[in-house]
């Protein structure tokens, strides 16, 4: 477990179909998170570089691992501000034609990519007014995502992953879980807060969620409500609604240790 406290921040966006616009927004918000909020670790939302007019739009801008303007921008931000940057998700080229990997890349304060997680669980939902099927354009990942940082061990999950607690158990004890997301307004209103609190409580760690939030150019409406939850399940900070913004707070290793000492649930596990 880390012995260092750190201020962490989540970026909330209403991404557009134009990659360059979204990169400019991220540069502005990350600088604000660092300069005005003192963030040492920053998380971007899912699909931050592009929320296209069609699902296939992201295929057209998918990058090869290690190369491309989206990855270059994230590396530059991490290096310039000397932060740990969890790059939400970007589309990476997959082996399946017409499909991408929905990938979170992690950059250290030197701007080096040090970890990667490809979203494992692909969202599917339909009601009378909306329908989503990520499997049409995304290939699922196969490996659990974790990385050691200056501030402890961080587990990685993306949006729909929240509904599968076995993924989080597979991480083992972590100090922080980061969750970039683009929850729909419908599912977010119903389940977002509950799922985030459950993952924090059962894993006795902080959870930092960076969401898309608002009505996008393509007409999709995302829930927002980016937030930080502590290991007792208490809400520490939230963007209470939609629109771009920054939310964060202090990650305190003493709080993690105290919760696990008072209620050693992780030691009591049977399965």
From TrEMBL:
UniProt key word Hydrolase: yes
UniProt keyword list: Hydrolase
CDD domains: nit (cd07572)
Highest taxon of the lineage: Bacteria
Keyword Calcium included in the entry's annotation: no
PROSITE patterns assigned to the protein according to its UniProt record, in alphabetical order: CN_HYDROLASE, UPF0012
Gene3D superfamilies (UniProt xref): Carbon-nitrogen hydrolase
UniProt cross-references to PANTHER family, sorted A to Z: DEAMINATED GLUTATHIONE AMIDASE (PTHR23088:SF27), NITRILASE-RELATED (PTHR23088)
Family per similarity comment: Belongs to the carbon-nitrogen hydrolase superfamily. NIT1/NIT2 family.
Protein name stated in the entry: Carbon-nitrogen hydrolase family protein
């Amino acid at each position: 477990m880390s012995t260092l406290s750190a201020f962490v921040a989540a970026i909330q966006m209403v991404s557009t179909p134009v990659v360059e616009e979204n990169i400019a927004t991220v540069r502005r918000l990350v600088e604000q998170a660092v300069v005005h909020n003192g963030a040492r670790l920053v998380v971007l939302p899912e699909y931050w570089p592009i929320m296209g007019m069609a699902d296939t739009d992201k295929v057209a801008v998918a990058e090869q691992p290690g190369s491309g303007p989206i990855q270059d921008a994230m590396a530059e931000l991490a290096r310039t501000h000397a932060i740990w940057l969890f790059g939400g998700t970007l589309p990476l080229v997959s082996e399946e034609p017409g499909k991408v990997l929905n990938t979170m890349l992690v950059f250290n304060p030197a701007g080096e990519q040090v970890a990667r997680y490809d979203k494992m669980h692909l969202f599917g939902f339909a009601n009378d007014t909306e329908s989503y099927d990520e499997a049409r354009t995304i290939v699922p990942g196969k490996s659990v995502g974790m990385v050691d940082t200056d501030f402890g061990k961080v587990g990685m999950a993306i949006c729909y992953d929240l509904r599968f607690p076995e993924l989080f158990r597979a991480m083992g004890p972590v100090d922080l879980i980061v969750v970039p997301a683009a929850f729909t307004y419908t599912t977010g209103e119903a389940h977002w807060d509950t799922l985030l609190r459950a993952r924090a409580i059962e894993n006795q760690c902080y959870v930092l969620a960076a969401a898309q939030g608002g009505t996008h150019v393509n007409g999709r409406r995302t829930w927002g409500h980016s937030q930080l939850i502590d290991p007792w399940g208490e809400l520490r900070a939230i963007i209470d609604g939609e629109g771009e913004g920054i939310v964060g707070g202090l990650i305190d290793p003493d709080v993690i240790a105290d919760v696990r000492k008072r209620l050693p649930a992780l030691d009591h596990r049977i399965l």
